[in-house]
Design a protein that fits this description.
Structural class: mainly alpha
Largest sheet: 2 strands, antiparallel
Distance between the termini: 14 Å
Helix content: over 70%
Number of domains: 1
Strand content: under 5%
C-alpha cells in the first residue's frame, strides 16, 4: 500500500471516530476568514465585478494551498511518519462523512419525537432555504436533499481529489467548495462577484458527481430500493436541476428511496419552484432520513473502495 492510500484510510478512520473537531480552530473556518478578508480588499479595488471575484478566489485558494503545502513540506523534513501524519490530517479536515449523517440523524430524531420546531432549527443548519414554515414532510425532504447533495461536497469529491492529487488536492477542493458556499449566490451582491467561485465549484465537482451517482444506484437494495428504478430516475431527472452536478446524486437518491425531491421551496423570503426529481409514490417520512444516511454511507464506502483499488492498481508496482 502506498503512502497516499495510507493517508486516505487514516483520514477516513479519524473522521468516523472523531467527526469534525469542535474545540479546535477548523481550517475551513480559517479559509472562511481569509475569503472574507479577500472579498473586502478586492471589492475596495474593483467593486463587485467578475474581476474582483476572480481576484478574491485566486488569493484565497492560492494562500490556502500554499500554507498547506508549506506545512506538508516542513513535515516531510521531519520524517516519513510526520509527512504521512500531516497528509492524513489535511485530508481529514477536508472530508465530513460523520457530520453529514449526524446532522441528518438529529433532524430525524426531532421529527420522530414530534418536535417540529427543533427539527426546523436543525435542518436550518444544513440548508439555505427558509425553514420556519416547513411541515414535517418538508423538513424530511430538505434533509434528504441536503444529505444526497452533500455526499459529493463533503465526502466523495474531496476523496477523489485526494486520491488524484494527494493531500493538497483535498485542501484545494475544500477551499473551492467553501468559496462557493460563501460567494456562489445568484443575488444582487454576488451575481457577478461570485461567478468565478460558482463555476470553479461546478468544475471541481463534475467528475466526482458522475462517479458518485451510479454508486447510489448500486447501493439502493441496501435500503429496500430497486437498482432499476434508481437508474431510471437518475437518467430521467438527473439533469433537471439548475446545478450541473447536484441533481445527479439527488435524483439517484430519490429513485433509490422511492420518493420525490425538489418542488416548491422558499429562499430568502422568495418562493422558488425547483424541478421535481423522482416519483411521488408516497409522502416523505422521518425514517427516510435514516435510509438516506445509510444509502449515502454505503455509496461513500463503495467510492473509497473503488478509488483505493484504482490507485493501487495504477501505482508503480501495482498488480494489473
Amino acid at each position: 500500500m502506498d503512502a497516499l492510500a495510507r493517508q486516505v484510510m487514516t483520514a477516513c478512520g479519524l473522521d468516523l471516530v472523531l467527526g469534525d473537531p469542535r474545540r479546535l480552530p477548523h481550517p475551513v473556518r480559517l479559509v472562511g476568514w481569509l475569503a472574507g478578508a479577500a472579498e473586502t480588499t478586492c471589492r475596495r479595488s474593483a467593486g463587485g465585478t467578475h474581476r474582483a471575484g476572480v481576484m478574491a478566489w485566486s488569493a484565497t485558494v492560492g494562500c490556502t494551498v500554499g500554507a498547506a503545502g508549506l506545512v506538508l513540506w516542513l513535515a516531510s523534513h521531519a520524517g516519513v511518519a510526520a509527512r504521512d501524519g500531516v497528509g492524513a490530517l489535511l485530508i481529514y479536515f477536508a472530508i465530513a462523512p460523520r457530520d453529514l449523517v449526524t446532522h441528518g440523524g438529529a433532524v430525524q430524531r426531532a421529527l420522530a419525537a414530534g418536535d417540529l420546531t427543533a427539527a426546523r432549527r436543525r435542518v436550518a443548519m444544513m440548508v439555505s432555504r427558509d425553514t420556519e414554515t416547513l411541515d414535517a414532510a418538508g423538513v424530511a425532504r430538505a434533509t434528504v436533499e441536503s444529505v444526497a447533495e452533500n455526499l459529493v461536497d463533503a465526502v466523495t469529491a474531496p476523496l477523489f481529489w485526494a486520491l488524484v492529487l494527494g493531500p493538497l488536492g483535498a485542501v484545494a477542493y475544500r477551499a473551492i467548495n467553501t468559496l462557493d458556499a460563501m460567494f456562489g449566490y445568484r443575488n444582487a451582491r454576488y451575481r457577478q462577484f461570485g461567478w468565478a467561485a460558482a463555476r470553479a465549484d461546478d468544475v471541481a465537482n463534475w467528475l466526482p458527481a458522475r462517479l458518485t451517482a451510479p454508486l447510489l444506484v448500486l447501493a439502493a437494495p441496501l435500503v429496500g430500493g430497486e437498482m432499476r428504478r434508481a437508474w431510471r430516475i437518475l437518467r430521467r431527472d438527473g439533469r433537471r436541476h439548475s446545478s450541473p452536478n447536484s441533481g445527479l446524486s439527488e435524483a439517484a437518491a430519490a429513485g433509490a428511496l422511492g420518493v420525490q425531491l425538489g418542488g416548491v421551496g422558499r429562499y430568502f423570503g422568495q418562493e422558488v419552484h425547483k424541478p421535481t426529481l423522482g416519483d411521488a409514490r408516497r409522502p416523505l417520512e422521518p425514517g427516510d432520513i435514516g435510509r438516506a444516511n445509510r444509502l449515502c454511507l454505503a455509496a461513500a464506502a463503495l467510492f473509497l473502495l473503488l478509488g483505493l483499488s484504482a490507485r493501487l492498481l495504477l501505482a508503480p508496482g501495482g498488480t494489473p
